[in-house]
Amino acid sequence: MDNFGMLTRLLRFQRLVAGSRRPEDVDRSGLLSPEEFQAELALLGLSGREFGPREYAEILGEKLGIEINICVLPDDHYPELTLEMARAGKVAELSYSEDLLGATILVPSSLPSIVRTLSVYHELGHVAAGHPLEVWEGGRRTNRLERVPRRLARRPPVEDRGLCEQEADLRAVYSLLAGSLGSKNHYAEKIYDPL
Amino acid sequence: MSETRAHYLLLASIFLAALFYLAFLALSPVRRTWSVKAGLTNALVLAAVFAGLGLSNITSWRAEVLGWMVRELPFTFILSLVCLAQAGLLPLRFGASPLGEVAKRPRLQTVLKGAPLVLVTSWLLAGVIGMIWPLPVLQSFASAPPHFVLMRWTLTLPTIFYCMVVGWLFFKAAGPGAPTLRLRLKNLLFSVGTFAWMLMTLNSTIHAPVRVWASEEVRQAIVATQLSIQSMLLAVSVLAYVLGLTLRSVPTIDESLLRSVYAVWLRARDRFESHGWHLIKGGKVRRAVRVSHYMNAAAGQLGLPEGDLRKALKTVELAAILKDPVTRTKEITPEKAMELYNLQRVIAQHSTLGFHIRWEKHAVSPCRGSETIESDPLHDALAAALDLLGHSVASRENSEIAPLHSLWYQLALVGATDAGLLDENRVEDESEHRRTRHKALRAYEAAKASTNLLTVGAK
After folding, report:
1. Where are the domains of chain B?
2. Which residues in chain A touch residue B269, judged by CB atoms under 8 angstroms apart?
3. Which pTM was predicted?
4. For residue A175, is it within any domain?
5. Per-residue pLDDT tens for B333-343?
């Protein structure tokens, strides 16, 4: 009992030293916090700067050593593709090249502008977090996941698809806010104010 | 009283002054930050320790070593805290960010993270050396055995290293990249304070070999100078830190707004609009798509600005989605639309903040225009669609009903009626907006007729 109590206390102390947060500050699923995201932006040299999805993609690609292309599909040229995406409940699609050194994000041009921006950030969020890829064989989805060798995030990627999507959603919101607010972003100020 | 004890009392008075100032700062709840509280505690402990050393007459060498350890512990503690704070790992600051420079260098974060372990181990090791081979560590002018150098350097060298790292990081954070002048000045003061601390420790490092190897006369002269330098550097360090803590940085935008209102609004908006797009592009609201061609042509005839046309088209789209039970999803209901509208109003009310949120307007156009809440058609379109469907958004304190009866609104009404979304009596009513409505109707009918003429024979 004493040993168990001591171990519990030690683990609690270790968590404190490791900087875990109060429950109310943590997203329920323990996903990325805005502070962690800001630290990633600092790593990219984007903290405190205004940026858009293309700039974020370019710098993220440079950092990870991969080429990220954002392709906006004009609906007039590819109506079937847009229809297919709409019927499948998709607004954007991320695919990697076989050697995983290239990533392409497809978004239809007819998406409302805010949804298009958030969708691109969402897909870039998957790249930054290093979320595992679903393996397709013969045009069919298998249940296998393939790890991506490069990522920006410090924490290991979550494997559950639902959590991956939630984290990418969070990243999209954080990106839009950080890119819009630039130096006025609260978290960009906090990164210069440790005491 | 010996010169050494007088020196300790002088240092105690410096910490006492800092203690009073920090206590004054802590009276204000907004300034009672974790760092002010930590500084206050340390100033209190150090003032007591130095006063104790200055007033007591310690005769045993082991007791001197113990006194030295007690004296050094608060310094070790505060340096460890600063290192952890810079690494963003301080237990007192949950969810804190590391300094920007540290975030860029993960190895540096590891080095800073290791500070408490390295510094406390060094402190313990130095204490153990002193306890095994006792020596007059607190008698600044007395000669000392050679292992005094080992004991002193065991603690001072790691301290100098960490002071250098911390001081350099504060100096970098005081650079032009910092978002406000206040933050730059604050970090510069912390940098000055840390470098003064480093010089103080360097002085202490040189003190050890002087006491071991210098001759009596030389030692007396050097140590006297060293004590004066030590007092001066400590005063500079304490003053710089205390002034730095006084400069509280007030965030430009409230964190709670970012965490709650903005994040909730963006997610709600993303869900609402993407579901709407799925329904429209998935061909589930064909009638709205059909009338949009006529509305486009009518807008040309009416000379409607592009922004107003976008509002009118969006209104018909939303009315079609909200009206048709087949297209109802849990994401798009009149209630959800009302919630989103109210959320948008909150954002718009914080005009200075709402104005900053922007996103790319054009998908393929090379011009990189951006859209804001003000330029975006959704807000007015939501109000118009809800109004058309009988869910009034106007309230006593909200006089936004006026724009709903502008030309674009009337065009939307005509289009929605033609799409079968509204009762035809809506077009015929005898309200004060009749003339505007008839103008929109005439343009719409002309556009429809000309389009039909062009498509004769098409299936």
Report:
1. 3-250, 256-359+369-454
2. 114
3. 0.77
4. yes
5. 888 888 888 88
First to last CA, chain B: 111
What is the β-pairing status of strands A102-108 and A93-96?
A: antiparallel
A147 within some domain: yes
Could you report the predicted ipTM of this complex, rounded to two decimals?
0.73
Task: Give A58→chain B minimum CA distance, Å.
Answer: 16
Which tens digits make up the pLDDT trace of B59-76?
788 888 988 898 899 999
- B273 interfaces chain A, CB cutoff of 8 Å: yes
Please count the structural domains in chain A: 1
Give the residue numbers spanning the domain of A128. 50-190
Q: Determine the residue among B42, B78, B97 to mutate to test chain A binding: the one whose Cβ has the most chain A Cβ atoms within 10 Å.
A: B97
pLDDT of the residue at A19: 35
Query: Is A156 a domain residue?
Result: yes
Which H/E stretch holds residue A181? Answer: helix A161-181
Is the CB of B371 less than 8 angstroms away from the CB of A39?
no
Shortest CB distance from A173 goes to which of B173, B267, B356?
A: B267
- pLDDT mean values, one per 10 residues, chain A (195 residues): 42 37 41 86 88 92 91 82 78 85 88 87 92 80 82 86 88 89 83 84
Which residues 6+ apart lie within 8 Å of B61 measured at CB? Answer: B134, B135, B136, B137
Q: Residue A188: closest CA among chain B residues belongs to which residue?
A: B179
Strands (E), A49-168: 67-73, 93-96, 102-108, 133-137, 140-146
